[in-house]
């Protein structure tokens, strides 16, 4: 099993250790948002998960993005050579889409293992049963997603993480 705190820690470690220092905010002066998609692999048969012998779970950051900017209408160009939305969630999503397309290419060419297996119809692929993906964001996204109702703790729709 895994926890939200483990996912967050993995993402922060990936950001801090695996990515170069160039382009990162200046400590104590600047900040940014971080978003990522994490691949979690665990046995399809979780019945063997017991307290004395827990199921082995593998976690891997497969896409990550940082940023808080949107360039706005005035700076957009018709030829599309400027990225309009550089929010962390958008960059992580675009990176994840690229990852998925690469995995489809691997599955179709049978060159390497892929996250996809053939589906029931020709040309249809499905995700392996032992995999799930989790989205992580260091902060709530901008806009309506960041509007949090002021409810009493016991009236919240879900438990805090």
UniProtKB/TrEMBL annotation:
Its EC number is 3.5.4.34. InterPro entries: A_deamin. GO terms for biological process: tRNA processing. Pfam families: A_deamin. Its cofactor is 1D-myo-inositol hexakisphosphate. One of its GO terms (molecular function) is tRNA-specific adenosine-37 deaminase activity. It catalyses: adenosine(37) in tRNA(Ala) + H2O + H(+) = inosine(37) in tRNA(Ala) + NH4(+). Keywords: Hydrolase, Metal-binding, tRNA processing, Zinc. Residues 63-147 form the A to I editase domain. Belongs to the ADAT1 family. Specifically deaminates adenosine-37 to inosine in tRNA-Ala. This is tRNA-specific adenosine deaminase 1. It comes from Pan troglodytes (Chimpanzee).
């Amino acid at each position: 099993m895994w926890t939200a705190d483990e996912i967050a820690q993995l993402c922060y470690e990936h950001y801090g250790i695996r990515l170069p220092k160039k382009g990162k905010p200046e400590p104590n002066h600047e900040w940014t948002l971080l978003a990522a998609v994490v691949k979690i692999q665990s046995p399809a048969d979780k019945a063997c998960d017991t307290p004395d012998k827990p199921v082995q779970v593998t976690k891997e950051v497969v896409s990550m993005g940082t940023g808080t900017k949107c360039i706005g209408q005035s700076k957009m160009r018709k030829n599309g050579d400027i990225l309009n939305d550089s929010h962390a969630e958008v960059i992580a999503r675009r990176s994840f889409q690229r990852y998925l397309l690469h995995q489809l290419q691997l599955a179709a060419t049978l060159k390497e293992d892929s996250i996809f297996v053939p589906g029931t119809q020709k040309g249809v692929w499905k995700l392996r049963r032992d995999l799930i993906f989790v989205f992580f964001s260091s902060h709530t996204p901008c806009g309506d997603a960041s509007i949090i109702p002021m409810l009493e703790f016991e009236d919240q729709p879900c438990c805090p993480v």
